[in-house]
Amino acid sequence: MSSDPFETDTRRLVRVFTRRLREAAGTAPESLAVDLVAIVRGHGWRRVQALQTPERAADNGDGSGRAEYAARRAALDGRPPCVCGAAVIAHQLDAGRRTGCADTGCTRYVPKTTAPGRSA
Known about the structure:
Oligomer: single chain
Number of strands: 2
Radius of gyration: 26 Å
Shape: elongated
Structural class: mainly alpha
Mean pLDDT: 77
Order of helices and strands: HHHEE
């Protein structure tokens, strides 16, 4: 048994496409594309919001996102190092939290702080 829950639907759609492509010999590509989209929609396809391309964040105006990246990197670089001595970015990011560090073998990021009366 296949692990694809849509295998039957996929095979059926492939048969429909094959038949339409066979019938469409000599048809303009644009009209064939419109027909294929109509077929797919008729078989239940709908856009899914989670699969849409995310909007670009603010950037330098060149569309690269470099300004946002630079701001995020500066915020990380401004954080104190871990008690293991490694920088924040040396620690793996796992579900929004910094975990183990391959450089030193520590298991999670714990910022090094100096409290009054204590040495670092």
